[in-house]
Amino acid sequence: MTATTDMPAPARTIDTSGRLCPYPIVETAKAIRAMDDGAVLLVVATDPGIALDMPMWCKATRHEHLGTFQEGGAWKSFVRKRAPGGRP
Amino acid sequence: MTRTAKAIAMISGGLDSTLALALVRRQGIAVKAITFYTGFCITETQRRKGGRADGTVPRNEALRAAADLEVEIEYVDISGGPYLDMLVHPKYGYGKNANPCVDCRIFMMSRAREIMEAEGADFVFTGEVLGQRPKSQRRDTLRIIERESGLDGRLLRPLSAKLLPPTLPEKEGLVDRERLLDISGRSRLRQIALAEELGVVDFPQPAGGCCYLTDESFSRKFFDVLEAREAAGEERRLAPEDVVLLSTGRHFRLSPRAKLVVGRTEVENALLEHHVAGRARVEARGVLGPVALVEGEPTWEERVLASRIVARYGKGKDLPKVEVEWREGDLVETYEVEPEQDEGRIEALRV
Fold first, then answer.
1. Is the pLDDT of residue B207 over 60?
2. Pick from B178, B193, B95: which is nearest to B138 by CA?
3. Chain centre distance of CA A47
4. CB-based contact B294:B307 (threshold 8 Å)
5. Which of B30, B34, B211, B265 would disulfide-bridge B6, Cβ 3.0–4.6 Å?
């Protein structure tokens, strides 16, 4: 079973703990804009909605959702940036 | 077609906006979707409180629709001061409850216009259907919304386009009017048939809107806050924190200058704990019971009454006396009160 230890090292981590939906996704969108194609973003959240939202947001925006994992009361979501026209 | 057009889609993820998105995409038009966060969405609040009673967490339908159609989506947060000011002073008035739908649409579409301009897009489109809603989707109000948002001629309603004057993107040949529709009214039969035709299989059932402002019980609390402030000689206004509290707990108006909010669930109790600053935190001691907040300046009698109501909603409701802790910052007092047993009195205070 895939776990956070199997995930690539993130180039950037943002902690949205304590912030409720839709802010984890809003902050993800802002953070990933400044990253390089192929870099991995780790989003930490305490809002359980992220487990539903992140895969859908990634599908809509063409970024790659590597996995979202619950650890205690928090969720860790790994996203690989895919720039428009970048590698599939 | 003269060139590839680009459009901004305002979507909620409901059936109509999903269909509008699919219709415009089918014409080969590049689309960026936007969805607005107002702070008044019932589904969002349900998610914040840990989901439905059966333990499931409702989806964000706008994200789901964008994901299904593989359209880039941006969340636009409009929940701040200017939006709240509009809610308190709507130019076109309220609908049946606290819903200033026309002003709200103008507000959102003005923001959509700014995004359209920043993105270099040609037009904005929505899933609005002529005649579907009694106020905001009448022919005359659709026109007002278009004009006042500054989107004159650049606002397309694909589902009803053939019943409305041609828009600029249609006149410019960017959009093929013949492939748009002429749906009107409240029936959803044509939309359901269209969903099948377009392969849109996953959409929420029409639920009569997801906005707290259209909810009668919420509206009472909304106007209660405004009226109490006015009666206390304060400005008629709403703050972002009010919005969270309005959708949380049982509300009791003790006087124009004091209100009691009693948590109904553990999640609501936890939520109220985040809003203790500037308010009194009230909770029974020695017996399980809700967390409650009192805002304003209660008199001694109102403090006792609030404590009796808090005791009534705890496990000690049938005891002759309950100790209630009243905490304001570092100041802690304890009152020994009889739980309020007069349901008529409680109901008279309930907002």
1. no
2. B95
3. 13
4. no
5. B30
pTM exceeds cut of 0.80: yes
ipTM strictly over 0.85? no
Q: Does the active-site annotation cover A21?
A: yes
Which of A20, A25, A53 has the CB atom closest to B48's CB atom? A20
Quick one: tokens of B247?
């959708």
Give the span between the Cα atoms of B142 and B62, in whole angstroms.
22
Q: Is the distance from CB of B257 to CB of B233 less than 8 angstroms?
A: no
Taking the Cβ of residue A22 and every Cβ of chain B, the question of whether any pair is shorter than 8 Å is answered with yes
The neighbouring-strand residues paired with A77 are A43, A68
Long-range CB pairs of B176-181, under 8 A, 24+ apart, other chains included: B176/B1, B176/B27, B179/B23, B179/B26, B179/B27, B180/B23, B180/B156, B181/B23
Q: Provide φ and ψ at B64, rounded to 5°.
A: -60, -45
A46–B contact, CB cutoff 8 A: no
Dihedral pair phi/psi, residue B12, rounded to 5°: -110, -20
The single residue of A7, A11, A21, A74 carrying the catalytic annotation is A21
Q: pLDDT tens for residues B277-308?
A: 999 999 999 999 999 999 999 999 999 999 99
Cβ–Cβ under 8 Å, residues B126 and B142: no
A59, B50, B66, B246, B248 from B266: Cα distances, Å: 34, 10, 34, 17, 11
A81 touches chain B (CB under 8 A): no
Q: Which of B132, B179, B101, B109 is nearest to B16 (CA)?
A: B132
Percent of chain A surpassing pLDDT 70: 94
Q: Do B60 and A29 touch (CB under 8 A)?
A: no
Element spanning B261, H or E? strand B258-262
Cβ atoms within 10 Å, residue B53: 8
pLDDT, tens digit (0-9, with 9 covering 90-100), for B300-330: 999 999 999 999 999 999 999 999 999 998 9
Q: By CA distance, what is A25's nearest residue in B?
A: B75
- Quick one: closest CA in A to B274, which residue? A18
